[in-house]
Amino acid sequence: MRTTPLAEMPVRGTAPCRFPLVARVAVRITAPESRISGPAGAVAAIWLHCQAKSNQAPNMQTTYQNQQWFYVKRPDGRVGNEHYELRKTELDGNLSANEVILRARIVSVDPYIRIQQHERNTYDVPHPLGIVQRAGVVGEVVASASPLFQAGDWVSAYSGWQLYARCHQSELTKLDPGAAPVSTALGVLGMPGRTAWFGLTEAGRPRPGDTLLVSGAAGAVGSLVAQFGKRAGCRVIGIAGGPEKCKFLTETLELDGAVDYRAHTTPAALSAAIQAATGGVDIYFDNVGGPITDAVIPLIKRRARIIICGAISQYDGGLDTPDLGPRFLQHMLFQRATIQGILARDFAHRMDEMLAIVAPWVKSGQIVFQETYVDGFEQLPEALNSLFEGKNTGKLLVRV
Amino acid sequence: MRTTPLAEMPVRGTAPCRFPLVARVAVRITAPESRISGPAGAVAAIWLHCQAKSNQAPNMQTTYQNQQWFYVKRPDGRVGNEHYELRKTELDGNLSANEVILRARIVSVDPYIRIQQHERNTYDVPHPLGIVQRAGVVGEVVASASPLFQAGDWVSAYSGWQLYARCHQSELTKLDPGAAPVSTALGVLGMPGRTAWFGLTEAGRPRPGDTLLVSGAAGAVGSLVAQFGKRAGCRVIGIAGGPEKCKFLTETLELDGAVDYRAHTTPAALSAAIQAATGGVDIYFDNVGGPITDAVIPLIKRRARIIICGAISQYDGGLDTPDLGPRFLQHMLFQRATIQGILARDFAHRMDEMLAIVAPWVKSGQIVFQETYVDGFEQLPEALNSLFEGKNTGKLLVRV
């Protein structure tokens, strides 16, 4: 496994990664040798860079030395470098009308990528083999034949794991670096934020006084769900792996409690710990599935809402041979509970509705959006792999 | 096991057990030696009896020779006679103001009774030991000190497994034998009907063209769900055990298909058969749980609604040691499906709303309400036991 050792940057102060403080605060690093780095001011640096370049003339270069990660082999367990090929290619920069050249700067790695690597249909057709890995990206327009974009504009797109892409203007969303750091378009103000917002508000239906339990609570979606839940007046308990993450939950996110699932070795012990922390669960926002969810389900209260947002513990397994867990549907009956599966894409058309509420919170520093950065385009497959090791806190991003 | 052999009555004609035909049609009997009998005209006989008695003078008797089934031991598997004691007692017939003496005529046996026999809380506290088994009853008022009831009135009550009960008027619901056979107060126009109606309409949200799959489709609730689904414009497929029940589903209830789960010995074969019959499932109304539900879940379509109404396959098991089944929450996510547990009691306050729609259908013969009768008060525990053998079609009732 290749790593990119980077000097661990000091955390300047104890303030969380709220927007106004972003240039002063580093993402926490827990593993000294980790290739996951969190240099202070990373986001702000990009943001300032973007502002500096926004008045430059369009780039007239006609060929771009590109790098692309091709998805070439379906994993039968953990995904890694062996399922990808890094290719150096040339991108023809001659633009047709309404096209632009996008230079990626921040590439997203998300758990859903692993789902789409299965051979059989899941919520989408399988990601084809032999093409560039699809992914969300934030980058700069470096050349434009579009009336809507000019060189220097920051945009988000779904252009995948490649340094350069030729995009039609319809594929781009312009970002306003003055409104929020551009990286947030891949996190709190992007797909993960939308997932958290609509999953909680639409399927969770939080009421003040409800006890909200979030699994994967230190993750990209979970950490937002937890904070949105607090703002809805819920008592919020998070489940995460390890004391550092639990400290993040209670001290940085100021949740009402945290359960370290790694500290409890049997399902019964974990269930008892969750019961002690929650006193029973009105809303369970599930990002992980598997044994943690097994431990939670007996603790749900009457008319509980269970939101199935992810099942990261299960993504490595074969879908055709699911593993076994305790049957629990009888308990759903007794409690008249609801389970609902939700996907961000179902709320894509309501993005503005979410942004109208959440963006001001981000701008005024009321929401913590933790980001973990990996540096280097060549790190992308290993960064994806690391999602399933539970090392990152908040949104995992790769700077390229 | 005691049985009460009764002459098998011929089925007079092929018409289903619709209201106007009730005196002419017998409940089907499949097992020649079965203690479950279905004499023709049973319901109508009671109904006519009730009409004949309705003008009699109040019964002035002051002591009633009673029989009561006491629930004395918690079953650790199948329930039967060994968990009950039949006691002959005397009931003091001296009434206080607003009290009546009720003589039970039809006693209900329902799967939920078994749930409440567990020691630990389920959706209610456990049924106490050492008291008369609670159950729904239809009977006659034989003496009254209530201004609301007179001797000869037919009522429904929750007076349990006893021949006579002294009840406060507030515990009784007066029945109109001219509107429907009184037995329907324990079936289509009672708790099972309410379960079916609100489970389907509130949690199932049927749309014309949806494919509705019902497990336990020949049962008290399932057979009504299936018919309500047809009236909502759904394509309805039922799952039941054995060719007779499947014939009932397709010929009597006129469903669009039926799957005999007993004809498929592996989960994969059952799943393939259900897939062939349904082509995918928009609404799954589940009364059984366990391996049948395991076979259905991979077949649900996008935004499917799964209603957990019962899990009769699981009621015998210990709740503290649930058995294992395939994990499936990931599939809920992919399909953005909803699972909802529902209980009849949550809709008790909306009974009138259901009756306003369903009672006219019953009266005009548009709804089949199959009833299976067991004769004899002493048969009650064994009748309850038989529910879990899947022998009855429609509502199982004991005539006492």
UniProtKB/TrEMBL annotation, chains A, B:
Protein name per the record: Alcohol dehydrogenase, zinc-binding protein
CDD domains the record matches: PGDH
InterPro entries linked: ADH-like_C, ADH_N_2, ER, GroES-like_sf, MDR_fam, NAD(P)-bd_dom_sf
Entry superkingdom: Bacteria
Keywords, alphabetical: Oxidoreductase
Domain (Enoyl reductase (ER)) ranges: 77-398
Record bears the keyword Transcription: no
Molecular function in Gene Ontology: oxidoreductase activity, acting on the CH-CH group of donors, NAD or NADP as acceptor
UniProt lineage: Bacteria, Pseudomonadati, Pseudomonadota, Betaproteobacteria, Burkholderiales
